Amino acid sequence: MKETPIFEEVFSQMVRLPGIWVKLLIGGLLSFVPIVNLLAFGYLYRVALGLRRSGRVTAPEWRDWQGLFFDGLRFAVVWLAYWLLPLILAGTVAWIFTEISLGALANVFVLTVLLVSNLLFSSALYRFQTRGDFKDLCDVGLIFRMTWLEFPKLIVPSFFILGVLVWLLPLYGLALFAGLFILIVYTGLRFLHIEQKRARSF
C-alpha cells in the first residue's frame, strides 16, 4: 500500500465487498448471544489478520467454526483489556460525577473515553497480531504511543463509528459488530501503511 488510506475510500470498498451485508448480519446476530459472540469476535480477528497479511480489505466466508471460537478468545482478551475495561472505569468515574451533581460532565467524560478506547483497542489488536504474543499487550506505553501518533487522523472515523453504535443501539449486537468491523479495517490499513513506509525508508 503506497498511498495513505482515506476513510471515505476505505468505507466505500467495505460496502462493495461481495456478500458483506449478509456477513455483517450473521456477525451481528451472533454478537447478541454471550459465548456464541466469540465466533463473531473470531471473524473480526481474521478480518484484521487477513488485512495485515495481504494489505487488502476482505470479508472472509463464515467457516471453520472451531477456529473462529479460539480466534475469538484471542480477540476477546484484547477487547476486554483495551475497550471494555476503560469503559467500565469511565462508568465508575461518571457515577461519582453524577453523585456530586456533575451529570453533564459525566456524559462528556464517558463519550471521550469511548472515542479513545476505540483507538486504543485498534492499536492493541494490531500490536498483538504482530507476533500473537499476549505479553505484547503489556507494552501499554507503546500502545498509547501508537494511538497518540494516529489520534488526529483517526478521530473522524472514531466519531463515525460512535454514530453507528448510537444509531443502531437497539440492535446492539449488529452495532458492535459493524462498528468494530469498520474500525479495525481502517485503523489496520493506517498502521500497515506506517509500517510499510518505515520499512521502505531503511
Features:
mainly alpha; 7 helices; 0% strand
Task: Characterise the protein shown here.
This protein has one domain. 79% of the residues lie in helices and 0% in strands. It is mostly helical. The mean pLDDT is 88.
SSE topology:
Layout: H1 7-15, H2 20-30, H3 37-54, H4 65-99, H5 103-131, H6 140-167, H7 172-201
Helix pairs in contact: 2-3, 2-7, 3-4, 3-7, 4-5, 5-6, 5-7, 6-7
| Class computed from helices, strands and strand pairing | mainly alpha
Instruction: List the total number of helices.
Output: 7
Kindly report the average pLDDT value. Answer: 88
Low-confidence stretches: none
- The tally of domains stands at 1
Give a quick summary of the entry.
By secondary structure, the protein is mostly helical.
